[in-house]
Amino acid sequence: MPAVFVHGVPETPAVWNALRAELHRDDVIAVQLPGFGCARPNGFGATKEEYVEWLVGELEVIKAQGPIDLVGHDWGAGFTIRLVSTRPDLVRSWATDGGALGNVKFEWHDFAKIWQTPGEGEQFWTDTLAQSLEERAAAYAALFGVPLEASIELNRPIDQTMADCILDLYRSAPNVGKEWAPDFVDIPKPGRIIIASDDPFLSSDQARESAERAGATVSDFDGLGHWWMLQDPARGAALLEAFWATL
């Protein structure tokens, strides 16, 4: 009965390492998005639809090990929302911190708007990759409350391949809320939407509305931000285990 964790942007499965260490289960799989700390397959367009299709393929293989508890963060949360909307048969349960992505009123944050703009997005990543790892990590720690050591590991894998995938992904999704929200309703498998109070990228109100439409319960992480699994991994693990205990 595996738990499958899906990371976001700009990340790799390592974002889950500290939380995984707190879990009392040994059937945890953290999948790695194509192009994120690994090769980008030939012909892979890195669109939101292709990543969802890829995740469906991963779960179709993993389900041989038993019913899946799916957990998504950031874009991994968005892919989770889409997957349970279209292929709920692949999971036993789901949890996501990106409930706002399933809301028709969703609007992208400022970084996303830069990445979606031709020229500006490319320049952003050129400038970012020109910085040292230490400079990038210090900025994440200061802006988002990520512990410095965790911020270094978060930033270490970022390279041109990842940057190119991020640009293609965001440019495929200017209207993701309007496209995905109509199907994110009355999900027939138990769901939990996590709301971090200090997340600057996602609307708490939109996430609550999405939870109500999807039939999911809500857990509030007061005092934590976008990278809650790095800020307080023990609290994140306890929340998930309490949810799984209800299934």
Summarize, please.
The chain has 247 residues and is an alpha/beta fold.
Structure commentary:
- There is one protein chain.
- The model has no long low-confidence stretch (mean pLDDT 97).
- The chain has a single domain (3-107, 175-244), classed as Rossmann fold.
- 46% of the residues lie in helices and 11% in strands.
- With 247 residues, the protein is α/β, with parallel strands linked by helices.
- Helix 2 packs across helix 3.
- It has a six-stranded parallel sheet, sandwiched between helices.
- The protein has helices spanning 17-22, 48-62, 75-86, 110-115, 120-130, 133-144, 148-155, 160-171, 176-180, 204-214, 228-231, 233-244; strands at residues 3-6, 28-31, 69-72, 93-96, 191-196, 217-221.
- It is built from twelve helices and six strands.
- The longest helix has 15 residues, at 48-62.
- 44% of the residues are buried.
Count of domain modules: 1
Task: Give the terminus-to-terminus CA distance.
Answer: 12 Å
Q: Round the mean pLDDT to the nearest integer and report it.
A: 97
| Strand-pairing-aware structural class | alpha/beta
N to C succession of SSEs: EHEHEHEHHHHHHEHEHH
Query: What profile does the largest beta sheet have?
Result: 6 strands, parallel
